[in-house]
Write a structure and sequence with these properties.
9 helices, single chain, mainly alpha, disordered N terminus, Tetracycline Repressor, domain 2, about 60% helix, Arc Repressor Mutant, subunit A
Length: about 220
């Protein structure tokens, strides 16, 4: 299998959405560097190297400022990590709320959208955040909420397609776990293409067995 075009390198870490107001620090120092700047830098470091790498000296070097600038905004590194977790969770809550719009789509469009979400995931961020969730309950709760919302959308769609409760639960669970598995196995297993991911989604959601000829092993 070829590498998926949606797989993102660590050099291209997406920024967290910033709040519309607040997070500006105090006084004149905030005109040069804001709380949001520190959160962005901390999140990028978490994604690249893990939460243990987030240290004030490292961040000051990255941002080109002194420790005085850091302590202008935060009492210690734990406060920065907590602020970063809060921003991440707020962004994830927006994602969960955005999924509510999918419920009103026809079932076929709903499943296609869920397949697209699987294809479009930013793998490097997913890996880092799930590892971070092992030590931060706030992040863990946010990850659980999104996983459960995805499962429910798929489960409800499968029920509408006519699957009984057991089959809908098994198939929705398999697809949800597959998405999590792609996150953790992408470096050690063949990475599926976008087309292959959609084909897998179709395999679990179709109501009749496919009629296809055997294909040669390409692994």
């Amino acid at each position: 299998m070829a590498d998926s075009p949606s797989k993102t390198d660590a050099e291209n870490v997406p920024s967290l959405p910033r709040p519309e107001t607040g997070g500006r620090g105090r006084g004149r120092a905030s005109t040069r560097l804001t709380v949001d700047d520190w959160i962005d830098a901390a999140f990028e470091l978490i994604v690249r190297e893990g939460v243990a790498a987030v240290r004030s000296a490292r961040l000051c070097e990255t941002l080109g400022v002194t420790k005085g600038s850091f302590y202008w905004h935060f009492s210690d590194i734990s406060q920065l990590i907590e602020a970063t977790a809060e921003r991440w969770c707020a962004a994830q809550n927006d994602v969960v709320r955005g999924l509510d719009k999918i419920d009103s789509m026809p079932v076929a469009e709903r499943l296609e959208r869920m397949a697209s979400i699987l294809v479009e995931r930013t793998w490097v961020v997913e890996v880092a955040v799930r590892e971070w969730a092992r030590t931060n309950e706030k992040v863990a709760a946010s990850v659980r909420a999104l996983d459960r919302r995805i499962f429910k959308i798929i489960y409800d769609a499968l029920r509408e397609l006519g699957f009984d409760t057991q089959q809908a639960r098994i198939r929705a669970g398999a697809l949800t776990f597959a998405g999590i598995g792609f996150v953790h196995g992408r470096d050690s297993l063949p990475t599926p293409t976008a087309a292959e991911l959609r084909a897998m989604f179709t395999l679990f959601t179709q109501t009749q067995a496919p009629s296809t000829s055997p294909q040669p092993d390409s692994t």
